[in-house]
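Intended use. Records like the one below are meant for learning the mapping from a protein sequence to its folded structure. Do not use them to infer anything beyond what is encoded.
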Amino acid sequence: MKKILIADDNKQITLILSSYAKKEGLEPIVALDGKEALEKFAQHSGELAMVLLDVMMPEVDGFEVCRRLRQQSMVPIIMITARGEDYDKIMGLDIGADDYVIKPFSAPEVMARVRAVLRRIGPQESEESTGQTLTYANLFINLDKYSVQIDGEDVQLTKKEIELLWTLAKNSTKVFSRDNLLDSIWGIDYFGDSRTVDSHIKRLRAKLDKFAHPLWEIKTIWGVGYRFEGHKE
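Structure written out for the chain above:
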């Protein structure tokens, strides 16, 4: 049975979400603060299908826990926040969360979002490669391993940044609007602001630009969106 890490300092919430998780066929692992969440993750990382992560937790807050998890794993993360400000939503997504839920919420809604994220990511049972690699000039993307290299050197990108780069590079003749990218990468059931795409593109470019790549770039098509564009030698 796959496991789900539920990290929230409210015991009642963890009990309710644990009960619903079991109905989804997931074994709940509960943490009541950020430090415990990191410890439980280290103990069960290979078995976890999902992490539900409250933002406002003692010891270590949810944003910092998310950052640390993303440094070592691509496990799906749904942030839970009592604050609905755009800044909190965008920040959570920018640091690697796959979705967010705003308190107060219903447990069935949370489970629906869990199912939606797991559907988008697809089955993770097999360790075999599905052959999802792409090479363009000095750029190499391996979506199976979520790794990117330029001239053979590793580029440290987040999960969403890699998915953005893959989507654009694999469809180099296509211009993607912000809404296209939101639907393709965050899913049609994502209700966030398209500004998060601009934020991700900005960070992605900054990381890529640390390496020379004269034969390609992520180009802004003003008034439309973005395109991966190659250049002749």
